[in-house]
């Protein structure tokens, strides 16, 4: 598979569909030739950036998000503070913070910006922008 996309969902979909290799269009010509040779020999080839995506997948497998976590994540992606989310959903700020911490743990991120980036990359919420 030759693709411009190195995101998790594209890589996994290609591999599940039977791809023997995955290389990004930005790869060097010599890398492309090496990938083709590996696949012809019956080996699997993964571009280094793709390998990193899959290693992260193994290290941090997705835990399913609860409906409430998805709801709170949507509000976080929309840029709302914990206080705003709490008021909107009739929850305490501590409950929202608890859910936020669970989301960050499940998605293996350390701040709100990473949380939003990962949520959008993985398609956990719709990108309204």
Features:
129 residues, mainly alpha, Rossmann fold, Arc Repressor Mutant, subunit A, 59% helix
Give the SSE map.
Elements lengths: L1 E2 L4 H9 L4 E4 L4 H12 L4 E2 L1 H12 L7 H11 L4 H8 L3 H14 L5 H10 L8
Parallel strand pairs: 1-2, 2-3
Helix pairs in contact: 4-6, 5-6
Describe this structure in words.
The chain has 129 residues and is mostly helical. Helices cover 59% and strands 6% of the residues. The chain has two domains: 58 residues, Rossmann fold (3-Layer(aba) Sandwich), CATH 3.40.50; 55 residues, Arc Repressor Mutant, subunit A. The protein contains seven helices and three strands; from the N terminus they run βαβαβααααα. Helix 4 crosses helix 6 and helix 5 crosses helix 6. The longest helix is centred in the C-terminal third of the chain and has 14 residues. The chain is elongated and about 60 Å long. The mean pLDDT is 87.
Short synopsis of the structure:
With about 130 residues, this protein is mainly alpha-helical. It contains seven helices and three strands; from the N terminus they run βαβαβααααα. α1 (about 10-15) links the parallel β1 (about 1-5) and β2.
The CATH architecture name of the largest domain reads 3-Layer(aba) Sandwich
Low-confidence stretches: none
Structural class: mainly alpha
Can you tell me the overall shape? elongated
Number of helix segments? 7
Query: Which CATH class of the largest domain applies here?
Result: Alpha Beta
Quick one: how many beta strands? 3
What is the CATH T-level topology of the largest domain?
Rossmann fold
Intertermini distance: 29 Å
CATH homology-level superfamily of the largest domain: Response regulator
Number of domains: 2
Average of pLDDT: 87
User: H/E order of the elements?
Assistant: EHEHEHHHHH
Order the strands across the largest sheet as they lie in space. Answer: 1-2-3
């Amino acid at each position: 598979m030759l693709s411009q996309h190195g995101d998790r969902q594209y890589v996994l979909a290609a591999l599940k569909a039977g791809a023997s290799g995955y290389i990004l269009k930005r790869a060097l010509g010599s890398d492309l030739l090496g990938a083709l040779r590996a696949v012809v020999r019956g080996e699997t080839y993964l571009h280094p950036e793709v390998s990193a995506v899959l290693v992260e997948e193994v290290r941090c497998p997705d835990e399913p998000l609860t409906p409430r976590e998805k709801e709170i994540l949507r509000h976080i992606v929309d840029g709302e503070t914990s206080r705003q989310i709490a008021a909107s959903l009739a929850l305490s700020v501590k409950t929202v913070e608890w859910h936020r911490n669970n989301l960050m743990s499940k998605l293996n991120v350390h701040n709100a910006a990473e949380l939003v980036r990962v949520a959008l990359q993985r398609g956990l919420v719709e990108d309204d922008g």
